[in-house]
């Protein structure tokens, strides 16, 4: 296990604006200087693994090797019980190659049909990779239910069709700080900060 010092630089190996926004808030008080893959002009590798942890490692390793800096990648997805866990690792591509999230949500709704099982959860695997190829991973989940029609304008991805347990609002109807406090990404990052940052 290797620790990141609180004043180090970290590359965020993501091209998703919604994730980057959440990470920058969640890491704001850590002292870590965050650079994004986009601003370093790093390429987007193909996500060829069938697990969240595997795809997070592909993205983190590619960014760490290309930049010479430690890199953090997030591979996440929406797992719907009535669809046997799909879209899962295919969440970004579920609406087609243009990553159209309106189409992706409609497809989830259509494939669920009238199945009374509305349970779903989000997963985020975070991989920290070092330029020498070492990796370490944490994972967070957030469970809840699928609602239709979609509600709310905040957040990103499948947020308008997901109500977390203990809530009546969708993720897209909450201020970002409320989502971050309970989300898969918020939980995974809490573990990341606790386990991987030098005290
Ligand atoms: O790979 P990067 O560059 O990080 O960006 P991406 O959008 O392709 O990200 P993923 O490969 O991890 O795919 C995860 C998809 O799951 C969805 N997703 C992940 N986290 C989410 C969240 O907090 N709220 C809603 N949808 C989310 C969203 O559609 C993402 O595009
Ligand atoms: Mg991706």
- The total count of strands amounts to 6
Largest sheet: 6 strands, mixed
- Number of spatially distinct domains: 1
Rg calc: 17 Å
Determine the strand fraction and express it as a percent band: 15-25%
CATH topology, by name, is Maf protein
Kindly, what is the distance between the CA atoms of the first and last residues, rounded to a whole number of angstroms? Answer: 14 Å
Say which molecules are bound, naming each kind only once.
Answer: inosine 5'-triphosphate, magnesium ion
Helix residue percentage = 25-40%
CATH class bucket: Alpha Beta
* Class by alpha and beta content: alpha/beta
Q: Provide a count of the helices.
A: 5
- The helix/strand order is EHEHEHEEEHH
Mean pLDDT across residues: 96
How would you describe this structure to a colleague?
One of its GO terms (molecular function) is nucleotide binding. Its EC number is 3.6.1.66. InterPro entries: dITP/XTP_pyrophosphatase (IPR020922), ITPase-like_fam (IPR029001), RdgB/HAM1 (IPR002637). The chain has a 6-stranded mixed sheet with strand order 2-1-3-4-5-6. It has a single domain, classed as Maf protein, CATH 3.90.950. A hairpin with a 5-residue loop joins strand 4 and strand 5 (135-146). With 199 residues, the chain is α/β, with parallel strands linked by helices. The model has no long low-confidence stretch (mean pLDDT 96). The chain has 5 helices and 6 strands, in the order βαβαβαβββαα. Helices cover 30% and strands 22% of the residues. The protein binds inosine 5'-triphosphate and magnesium ion (MG). Magnesium ion (MG) binds at residues 47, 92.
